[in-house]
Q: What sequence folds into this?
């Protein structure tokens, strides 16, 4: 359930950012947004923990702000895998990573998610 919610949030942010920043963030179509959302969510679950461990000294020094750089690197890696999903520069990926982080803080708050099992 959490994976599906994360994919939906990522896709919504990708579509919104593609409308807000058409010159720096290129999104070919909705299919590319959906594929990129699935790929990013999978990469966040598989690769991101390793990157966070490797960058732990920088995360401690920056008080966690380096995690935005890691998120931007994950977006660049997603752009490498998904055709039709492209950033003009690393700073555009950083800006989209900032929006993704804000959306995840708002919508993926673990205190608001309740799964009832019967």
A:
């Amino acid at each position: 359930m959490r994976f599906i919610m994360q994919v939906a949030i990522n896709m919504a942010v990708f579509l919104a950012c593609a409308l807000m920043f058409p010159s720096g963030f290129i999104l070919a179509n909705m299919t590319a947004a959906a594929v990129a959302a699935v790929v990013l969510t999978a990469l966040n679950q598989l690769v991101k923990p390793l990157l966070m461990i490797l960058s732990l000294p920088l995360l401690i020094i920056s008080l966690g702000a380096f995690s935005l750089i890691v998120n931007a690197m994950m977006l660049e890696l997603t752009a490498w895998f998904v055709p039709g999903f492209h950033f003009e520069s690393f700073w555009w990926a950083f800006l989209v990573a900032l929006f993704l982080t804000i959306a995840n803080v708002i919508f993926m708050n673990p205190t608001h998610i309740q799964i009832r099992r019967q």
Summary: The chain has a mean pLDDT of 89. The longest helix spans residues 2-20.
